[in-house]
Write a structure and sequence with these properties.
single chain; 282 residues; mainly alpha; two-stranded antiparallel ribbon; 11 helices; 1% strand
Length: 282
């Protein structure tokens, strides 16, 4: 079975679980709303305080200087966005894990658990933000080599941290311990060297294309049609993003349950969980 077919089959399985717990989609919605508000507030405040009087600078040297002045706000943005994202991910994964195990956890239960883990979540956000800033600096300073290095490091970081959210939901632990345990669980279950496994990416890339076409379709009816097309495209992509986030949270919960307890959650196939990542040959 091809990668696209397996990805579609996985989405179908996960969506069947989501349909029985539709309230889980509120968590990505809340995450997006809080993230948007934080972005506007942080960068709005930073630009007001750091932009020199007069017209907005367009000179490359002035823009570079403005970027340096905005560095504290950029770091704050990373910390806040990571905090919001992981907070709602912990809530989502905790509810999904409970439901997959036969429990009756509610939206409020997940949010309360995430609030109990707020200091662990903040510490993880600080670590993730520091790594993100360092990788961005390396990419800017080292050019092509920096891009290769950051891409390779980013892949390793993504794989090593895949189970941080369920670990923080299950236990109150520090960021280094969570990252270490996540990497150990991944390595024990799928090995040290893996190739890309199945995921939602290929299917959702295809699903986004109709939304991107809507502005061009609306442009046939004039400027107002173009604006309406952009509005519908934004709503379409937002809905897809919410569904994608909810499905990923459920799938991570199912993977974590399989990796730690060896149990296949209802609605999933063993082959999809055990083959989520394939070891490299040789």
């Amino acid at each position: 079975m091809g990668t696209l077919s397996r990805s579609w089959d996985l989405i179908r399985q996960t969506f069947a679980v989501l349909k029985s717990d539709e309230e889980l989609m509120w968590l990505p919605v809340l995450s997006a709303l809080f993230g948007l508000a934080a972005t506007v507030i942080i960068f709005g405040t930073g630009l007001v305080l750091m932009t020199p009087p007069g017209p907005i600078p367009h000179d490359p040297a002035q823009l570079k200087e403005l970027f340096r002045a905005m560095t504290p706000f950029i770091f704050l943005f990373y910390v806040v966005i990571y905090s919001i994202t992981i907070y709602f991910n912990v809530a989502l994964v905790s509810i999904a894990a409970n439901r997959l195990a036969g429990g009756q956890a509610t939206l409020n239960d997940g949010l309360q658990l995430a609030w109990k883990r707020k200091w662990s979540i903040l510490q993880w956000a600080l670590l993730a933000a520091t790594v993100g800033i360092l990788l961005e600096m390396l990419e800017r300073r080292l050019g092509f080599v920096g891009r290769l290095l950051t891409r390779f490091t980013g892949i390793i970081w993504t794989l090593a941290s895949v189970f941080v959210a369920p670990l923080l939901a299950a236990q109150d632990m520090g960021p280094v311990e969570a990252l270490t345990k996540s990497a150990q669980i991944f390595r024990r279950t799928w090995g040290e060297q893996v190739v890309a496994g199945i995921g939602f990416g290929p299917v959702f890339v295809l699903l986004y294309f109709p939304g991107l076409y809507l502005p061009f379709l609306g442009a046939r009816f004039g400027p107002s049609g173009l604006l309406i097309g952009f509005a519908f495209a934004a709503v379409y992509c937002l809905i897809l993003g919410v569904i994608n986030s909810a499905l990923r949270g459920i799938f991570i919960a199912a993977l974590y349950r399989y990796a730690t307890d060896g149990q296949v959650s209802p609605g999933f196939h063993l082959d999809d969980l055990s083959g989520a990542w394939q070891p490299k040959e040789g």
